């Protein structure tokens, strides 16, 4: 079971861990919320999760682009 958890954590977008760090909230609770909410609402939190992941990727792209490295 631990290998399966590590497999998904390495390949996930990191949205739950990022939210947990920002809100100072347990990451496992956030993941469970997304899972349970997806079952109850027929998958609409998955759309929210993917949009948050895309936002994180776009922000990271622009940070790299706007951070010039200066050589002396």
Automatic annotation (TrEMBL):
Keywords assigned by UniProt, alphabetized: Membrane, Transmembrane, Transmembrane helix
Transmembrane regions listed in the UniProt entry: 33-55
Full protein name: Phage shock protein C (PspC) family protein
């Amino acid at each position: 079971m631990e290998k399966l958890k590590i497999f998904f954590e390495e390949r996930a977008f990191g949205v739950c861990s990022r939210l947990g760090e920002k809100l100072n909230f347990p990451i496992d609770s956030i993941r469970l919320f997304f899972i349970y909410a997806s079952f109850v609402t027929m998958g609409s939190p998955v759309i929210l999760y993917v949009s948050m992941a895309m936002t994180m990727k776009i922000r990271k792209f622009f940070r790299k682009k706007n951070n010039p490295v200066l050589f002396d």
